[in-house]
């Protein structure tokens, strides 16, 4: 992994993205998106994670985050570890999941290829954090996050996508209590 992308300054905001191994479309089901949202809420309340923007796509997540408490790399590590375990459990226990065996097999396969894991891997290894050192870059990343579902053809307007902070920025109530950038 490149050393170029690291959380260097905890006083800054960061754009982070993380993807499911093999870019698997896991987040097509609400119950899996809710696991991720619950974990984000937990980190916000208990670890000091500040979320300024988010979008949960089918195979990946984009966030604009900061923290005045715990180091961001620790929060992201814990978030990914916890959601990995919870999502594995949710997939395994979901009687409606027709892809269960295939998904779990691919995630076990990815885990066995990676010595950092114990035979299972849900998320790809990296977060690719980008420090948002000015307002123009921050706005560019928020626009990118909010346009992602539009570009994918899921909705025609960013605020129509339920699993995004675009609703909050359009004056509507979103699913997370985010911190708005004015």
TrEMBL record:
One of its GO terms (molecular function) is transposase activity. SUPFAM superfamilies: Transposase IS200-like (SSF143422). Residues 9-148 form the Transposase IS200-like domain. Coiled coil: none annotated. InterPro entries: Transposase_17, Transposase_17_sf. One of its GO terms (biological process) is DNA transposition. This is Transposase IS200 like.
